[in-house]
Specification:
The complex is a heterodimer. In chain A, about 55% of the residues lie in helices and about 10% in strands. Chain A is mainly alpha-helical. In chain A, helix 4 (about 60-75) crosses helix 6 and helix 6 (about 95-110) runs antiparallel to helix 7. Among the domains of chain B are: about 1-40, no CATH class; about 55-90. Chains A and B meet through strand 2, helix 4, helix 5, helix 6 and helix 7 of A and helix 1, helix 2, strand 2, helix 3 and helix 4 of B.
Amino acid sequence: MVTTDEKGPLTAKKKSVIIRSCDGDEFLVSESAAVLSTSLKKILEEKEDRLIHLSDIDNKTLAMVIAYLSTHADDGLSDDLKRSFDQEFVSGKEFDVLKYLVLATDTLQVTCLCYTVAKKMADIMKNKLVEWVRREFDIQNDYTPEAEAEIRRLDAWAWDDRQLEDD
Amino acid sequence: MSLTCQRIERIESRFDKHLLATRPLLEKMQRCVEIQTTERDDDDDGSNSMDRISELPEDISHHILSFLSQKEAVQTCVLSKSWRYIWSTRPKIEFHEDCFNGNKETFMSTLDKTLQGYHDQKLCIQEFRVDMWVDHYHSKSISLLEKWISRVVINMRVKTFNLYMLAFTQICKLSQNPLDKVLFKHLQTLTLTLVYIEDETFEKIISCCPLIEKLYLNSCIGLKTVRVNKGCNLKDFVWLMYNIQKDLIVEINAPTLETIKIVGIANWFHGHNKYFPHLKSLYTSEVRLASWSSDMFSSNYMPTLENLTIQYCYDLKEFQLSNNSIKHLTVISSYEPIDKVVIDAPNIVKFEYVGDIAPSIAFATTSSEWKSDIRLSYDVCFDDDASSSWFFKLNKLLKALNQSEISLDISRYHGGGRRNGHIADNYGGLCEVVVVEHLKLTGYFPSSFPAFLNCLFRICRPRILGPCSYANAKISGFRGRDMQVTEFFCKNLLRGRKRRHYVWQQDLEEVSLECFDKSGREWHRIRGTTLFARTDAASKNPYGEQELRFRLKWREI
C-alpha cells in the first residue's frame, strides 16, 4: 500500500480534502476517496480549494457516504470484502436514512452506492401490501376510496392472485 | 495536515446508530475519516423539510422502481396521487404472460396500452423484456409484437432487449421477422430465447448493432450458422441449443470478447481469428472442436483466459494447455475420458475433473498453491480387469496431481457381481501411495466395500474421510447404504482398530472423529464414545441424522 502511495504525482501522498455538511460539520477525507464521487472530482479539478461545502447534505448522511467512499478507495480491501461491506452498509437502515442517502449519492454522483441504495429501497417495497408501504414510507393516501377502487380496476391484472405478506 | 481540529471525535460515538452495521470495517474507516465538529444536537433533525418518498426527484423514483417487476411497479399507483403515473414512465418494460393467469387478451391489451403510453409521450425505455406464449392459432400476439419491436427499438432507444417466446410448437416464428428490419442503434444487450430467427436476421442484428456488448441466444431455432465477425464490440456471447439439430456452425471472430459460452452439438470453427486478447471465461459443452489445433487454449491465442470449462467435447481427447493466466480449469467427460492431456498452467488455483474413469493428464510444475477436485464413478468397472485398470489410472492421475491439495469423490450406485475392487499384480507393483486431503465415498454396497477400500487405500491415503451421513434409525435405499458405510468406518477406524482386519489398518496412527455443527456451520471434534452412546440409546436419541468425518493420521511410508 505504501508503494502505491509513492507512485506518481497524481496519487501523491495522502492529499486530503475537507468536506463540510449543510449543518457545518467538517470531514477530512483522502482525495482518493473523494474522487470516487463524480461531482467532487469535478469540483476538485476545477479549483484548488481544499474545502468543499455541500449545502444540501446533512452530517449523518455525509458521514455515511464518506465511510462508503473511504472503504471503496482502500486498495487493501478485496472486492469481495467491499461487496459484503455494501450489503451491511444498507442493511437494517430505516427508510428515511436510505432516502437521504439516495439523494446524497444522486447529488454527489456516486453511481454504485446510488444503485445499492435504490435497490435496497425497492427490496423493502417488494411483496408488500400497499397499506404497508404507505405506513412504512409515511405516504398520505389522498385518494377517495372510490377513486382508488377505480384505479385498481383499470389495471386489475396487477392485483390478481396476490401472495403478499403484511408484516 | 494543517487542519486545526478543535475536537476530533470518533464517528462511532456520534453516528453509532447508523454505522453499527459497518462495524467490521469501522476501524479502517476511522483512519480515513476524521471529524471536526462543533457542538450540535443531533436529535432534532426530524424536522427536516423532506420526509416523504413522494418528494424524491422523478429519476430517483424511476431508479428505485426499475428494480421492481411490472406488477409491483403498477401497484405503486395507488399509494397516493403523486404516485399515480410514476410507474408508467419508468424506463423499463417487463411483461410476463404468466402474470396474467392465462388471460391472453388482457396480456396483449395491457402490453399494447402500456407501450402506446410510452410511444405517445416519446419516452425512452432502457430495458425491454417480454416473455410470452405463442402458438399457431394466435397470430394476433405475433402481429402485436411485430408492430412494437421496431418502434421500441428505434424510437425508444432500448438498450437491453429481451424476448422470450414460449412456443407450443417449434416452428412458430415472426412472419416478417421485424428484427430483420431494425437498426439497433442503441442496443447493448440482446437476449432471445426460443425466438425463431434465421441466419440472415442474425447477421443483420450483429452488423446493425454498433454498441452491442452482450448477446444471449437460447434455443433460437432456425439459426444454423452463428457467425460473429470482427468489427463489433461484443463482450459476452452465449449460445445455447438444447434441441438436437444437424450441422450447426458457430464461428466467432470478434477479438473483443471477454466471455464465450457455447452449449450444444455444433461445430465451432475458428474462422480467420483464433486470437482473443480479452477473453476471460470460456465454457464449451458438447461442442465439436475438430478444426482447432490442440493448443487452442494456449496463451498464444487466449492470453487473459482465467476460467475454462470443457464439457463433453470428445474431439478434445488429446490437447495441450499451456496458459499462464488460467486460474480455474474444469473438465467434464463421461464414458470417453480425455486421453493425453498436458497442462502447463503455473497460476492455476483449481482444477476440477468429473467423469467415470481417471483421465491421463500431465501437469507441469506450478508455482502457487492450488487445489484439485476429482469426481469419479466406479460404476464402469464390470470385472477384475476393468477394476484393476481403473485403480491404476486413478493412481496415475493422483501422482500427476501431487503438487495440489487433492479432493477425491468416488460414487458407486450399481452393486453386486465381482465388482468388488481388484488390483492385478502387474499393476500393483507400479502403484504408489498418494496423500489425498479429502476423500468422499457415496453409494457403496456394504458387502463389496471392504475389498474396494483395500484397493483404494493401496493407492491413496486420505487426511480427511467424509463427510458421511450417520443416523440411528434404519434407513433404506441409497441413503441407508451410505449409513452402513459410515457404520463400517466407525467400526474399523474407531472401535475395532486394534483388531486389524485389514492391511491398511497397520498404517493408521491416529483417528479422530468430527461432527458438523449445523448452527455454527463448522466441524468440531467429538469423542467416538459419545457417538456410540447415542447409537446404543437409539430410541431416546434426540440427535437424529448427522454429518460425520474422520481425520486420519497415517504412518509415514
